[in-house]
Amino acid sequence: MKVIIGSIILLVIIGFGLWLMLSPFFKKVGSGASKFKKSWEEDRNE
Fold it and tell me: The pTM is what?
């Protein structure tokens, strides 16, 4: 029973990851993260 539940959870996680990669929302998150990273690096260098 634990194996079945674990397999279902794993499939849901993989499916959610694929959905994120294929959806336009992922691009918005990625661009926001890159902007945040650039600003964080600039603050760190000062």
Answer: 0.47
